[in-house]
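Worked example

This section walks through a single chain of length 228. The input is the sequence exactly as stored; nothing has been trimmed or padded.
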Amino acid sequence: MIDLYSWPTPNGHKVHIMLEETGLDYRVHGVDIAKGDQFEPDFLKLSPNNKIPAILDHDGPGGKPISLFESGAILIYLAEKTGSELLPSDPAKRYETLQWLMFQMGGLGPMLGQAHHFRKYAPETVEYGINRYTNEATRLYGVMDKRLGEAEYLAGSYSIADIACLPWIRSYKDQGQDLDRYPNLKRWFLTIKERLAVRRGLAVLEESTRKTPYNDEELKRLFNVERK
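Given that input, the structure is written out below as tokens.
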């Protein structure tokens, strides 16, 4: 059994989808990041960077419990635990997959997150920030669109790289993007989001998805920025 500590965000959804794809048994523990649950001592023992998601696998390597934070590391762990070809065993294909996973972890996620922040949550309008990160989102969408014109999926076959990227693309409007400008990316997006495991993963903690604006106190917890 795996204990999953998460919230319905792009990084959380990566691991939700992966757990559904692998068919592993898991229990969900909601970590309400607007209320500050991520700063609770028990959670910090699992995730010292106070970020979701984190997992506690009671049947880890050698049958001993193991906890992990950082969504990319969790995806790799779950793939290896199950022997899943979502992280191919062939060395060339494996590194093809890992490079696109790192593309998401080091570029796509952080840059789209900043675009989302400056366009929607910043305490004041900062045109430089809006333009800087919207333009970078546009560039990254173009990189993906070009790649997906060459291959059906980012690493050739469906993999943890696709699982990592998909949740971030769901908020394309908040990043100032129009999927019709990226036909290959749009084809990929529409195909993957209809997978049964993806639909189940995106439904995890769905009832907790925020439908009203955050107040100033919640925004400070989320972004450590005082509202003026």
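What to look for: The chain has a mean pLDDT of 95.
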